[in-house]
Design a protein that fits this description.
homodimer, alpha+beta, globular, DNA-binding
DNA sequence: TTTATATATGAATGGCTATTCATACATCAT
DNA sequence: ATGATGTATGAATAGCCATTCATATATAAA
């Protein structure tokens, strides 16, 4: 396990917006407009994120008229599910951590 | 699953240095000096990371003379293991992703 | 007490990168 | 064709945060 794959893995999946998109896609396939509504992200921003998720092999896409329908790749479903379960189970522990660096995060959370 | 816990979770675990430390701690408990050797990080840097991992509940510490021996908390062992397995299994897919953003990463990897 | 070793803490900063803005491209309807 | 709608792309930037440097604290040995 070397630096490149670990950094790339967390770069792709460790961003809140991208992880949220993957979580939504666990439930059902969505086109870009639907992802925009589901996440409250801007359209161009969503497209950038989808480009990242596509190229890292986390999602697939198919055309449907003007729309592009994205679906999560089945191989990563268990991984995402286990991360979500972990975050939900240890929610309180995670939130209660009180490190200096957390101030960085707090500033960003609206 | 809300923004704060997701961001905090990935903030703590999604950093390569911290993830590497956790991976080392899966094998055996280590004091700071041993972590320094195992990861080639600087001592003060390791201490900063341990502070983060402590406060987020990922590791525990006990004194042993001048040394502080850190151990990974058993609840997160399965999670870290599954992440490592995933990264190793899909190593080629992860590495072969060719997104614009990857240039950010490539610059950093030595 | 003095010195040495192990670890922690505080401040500063350089560079990564999510987001935004502007615009281009693709498809469909009229 | 022309307009409308859905999506992608390129460039710019603001600010997060890992790392480094300097220093403090803690413990042990002499």
């Amino acid at each position: 396990m070397e630096k490149l794959e670990v950094k790339t893995f967390f770069f792709a999946i460790g961003d809140y917006s991208r992880f949220s998109i993957l979580a939504k896609l666990l439930e059902k396939d969505l086109n870009v407009g639907e992802i925009v509504k589901a996440t409250s992200l801007e359209q161009s921003n969503v497209s950038h994120h989808m480009s990242c998720l596509m190229n890292c092999g986390f999602v697939s896409v198919k055309k449907d008229g003007k729309a592009r329908i994205y679906s999560i790749n089945s191989e990563i479903r268990p991984m995402i599910n286990s991360m979500i379960r972990h975050i939900e189970k240890y929610r309180n522990d995670i939130i209660s951590c009180d490190i200096a660096d957390r101030s960085y995060i707090s500033k960003v959370i609206k």
